[in-house]
Amino acid sequence: MKKVLVITGLCILIGYLAFSAFYFKEKPKDGLCTEFDIVVSNSENGMQFINTNDIVKYVNEKGLNPKGKPLKDINTDSLEHVILNNQLIKAAQAYVTNNGAIRVTIQERKPILRIIPNTGESYYIDNDGNKMPLSKNFTAYLPIASGAIKEDFAKGDLYNFTLFLRNDNFWNAQIEQIVVLPNDEIKLIPRVGDQQILMGQLNDYKEKLDKLMTFYKKGLNETGWNKYSVINLKYNKQVVCTKR
């Protein structure tokens, strides 16, 4: 008897879910669009690069605002395509809500590094390694890379190096700026310690930073953090310092 009741209950539940899915999916398509909403799904700690009013304005300019239009005539794919023209947006999904509104849920791209090249305009590199424009609405507090930076280098070696720094609590807090020299060699500006750190090219950067960490612990802790103006990591198994 208990088994029969369980099976009956499951059948009723499945039937209800099927009915609900059909009812709520089909019902809104009979009327007019009651509202047009933009929702940012992944903004964090007030860090939102996109002004949703700007997106609505852009959709209006393209003649695609769905409000007041028959739901059956609204092409949500076209809405998504137009909204994705905004290069600050990573993904967009448009759908009909239960109250007959069209809602677009967008996902912002997430920058991890700001690039300030010697030539050209500043931009971000996002967490997928792609170029991302600056936002007029919000400026992210991020490490800065400046100097002779080619875009391919920013999206490749610099991106990988930045990911490494971000995944290490100490280096993420310690490295404030990355300076790229004309030969793609790297100079680091730390937050603690008034010196320049010469990395050379970005090969074996993990080993070079391990070497620097050892020097921090065994050298600077004894001599003081401001004794040297330059710490050079370019040479194999050596840390070469220049005194002030």
Estimated radius of gyration:
27 Å
Percent helix, as a range, is 25-40%
Helix and strand content put the structural class at alpha/beta
Oligomer status: single chain
CATH homologous superfamily identity of the largest domain: Cell division protein FtsQ/DivIB
Tally of individual domains: 2
**CATH topology category name of the largest domain:** Rossmann fold
Distance between the termini: 89 Å
Any idea of the CATH class of the largest domain?
A: Alpha Beta
Binned strand content? 25-35%
Main sheet makeup:
9 strands, mixed
Our count of helices gives: 6
Overall geometry:
elongated
Summed over residues and divided by their number, the pLDDT gives a mean of 86
Map the helices and strands.
Layout: H1 2-26, E1 36-40, H2 52-61, H3 76-83, E2 89-96, E3 102-108, E4 111-117, E5 123-126, E6 131-132, E7 144-147, H4 151-166, H5 169-174, E8 175-180, E9 186-190, E10 196-200, H6 205-223, E11 228-232, E12 240-243
Parallel strand pairs: 1-3, 4-7, 7-8, 10-11
Antiparallel strand pairs: 2-3, 4-5, 5-6, 8-9, 9-10, 11-12
Report on the structure:
This protein has 244 residues and is of the alpha/beta class. The protein folds into 2 domains: 30-108, Ubiquitin-like (UB roll), CATH 3.10.20.310; 111-243, Cell division protein FtsQ/DivIB (Rossmann fold, 3-Layer(aba) Sandwich). The protein has helices at residues 2-26, 52-61, 76-83, 151-166, 169-174, 205-223, and strands at residues 36-40, 89-96, 102-108, 111-117, 123-126, 131-132, 144-147, 175-180, 186-190, 196-200, 228-232, 240-243. A hairpin with a 7-residue loop joins strand 11 (228-232) and strand 12 (240-243). The longest helix has 25 residues, at 2-26. The radius of gyration is 27 Å and the shape is elongated. The termini are far apart.
